[in-house]
Amino acid sequence: MLNNLINDIFIFVKEASLANLAWFSVIAYAIHYAEEGPGLVAWFTRKNNPMIFMGKKVTYTQKKLRTENALLFSITVLCVIFINKYPDNWFLQALILGQGIGFVTNSIYHAIPTLKEKVYSPGVVTASSLFPLALILYLYKAAQFELLTLPIVLTAFVMGNLLLPVAIVITHNVILKNNY
After folding, report:
1. If we measure between CA atoms, which residue out of 170, 93, 99 comes closest to residue 135?
2. How many Å from the N-terminal Cα to the C-terminal Cα in the chain?
3. How far apart are CA 72 and CA 80, in angstroms?
4. CA 146 to CA 11: how far, in whole Å?
5. Among residues 58, 75, 62, which one has the least CA distance to residue 36?
């Protein structure tokens, strides 16, 4: 039975389009937030784990974390919906690859303090297991369909590395600027 399931998964991955596989972003994100959401604010507020962003200590609240993740999750879902509607659009293909890159950046973000301090960082388990898998799947699919062109790769790299910082700036300095 398990053999059949594994075989079915491999067949699905082999035959799916990048747009089909992009739904993995939504699933991985939801599972990751379920692990991260309940404990990340408390983890940040511990004396030895301040969030430093752009050289500045960031005050985290549950409201900021929820808002930040609602914004990022909405963008993730919209990208997946749009690539499924327009699967041949190079910019949307780049955004999906960028999600995979951003996910791996998030994995590193969780792994560093966990390894350095030997303290569990909420979200590290899902970030370290699901997010690299997403990027591997997306790169495999992009290579299979010869989508690893310079414009797509550069756009993916830029978007994958900018989305989280932009969401943090918007959440902390615009939407919830006065929420301490």
Report:
1. 99
2. 52
3. 12
4. 19
5. 62
What is the distance between the alpha carbons of residues 137 and 148, in angstroms, rounded to a whole number?
A: 13
Q: Please state, in angstroms and rounded to a whole number, the distance separating the CA atoms of residues 12 and 180.
A: 46
116: left (phi over 0), alpha (psi -120 to 50) or beta: alpha
Q: What is the pLDDT of residues 1-56, one digit of tens each?
A: 888 888 888 898 899 999 999 999 999 999 999 999 999 888 877 755 666 666 66
CA–CA gap between residue 103 and residue 36 (Å, rounded): 14
Cβ contacts of residue 77 below 8 Å, gap of 6+?
A: 26
The model's pTM is: 0.87
The total number of residues shown for the chain amounts to 180
- Buried b / exposed e over 1-25, threshold 16 CB at 10 Å, is eeeeeeeeeeeeeeebebbbbbebb
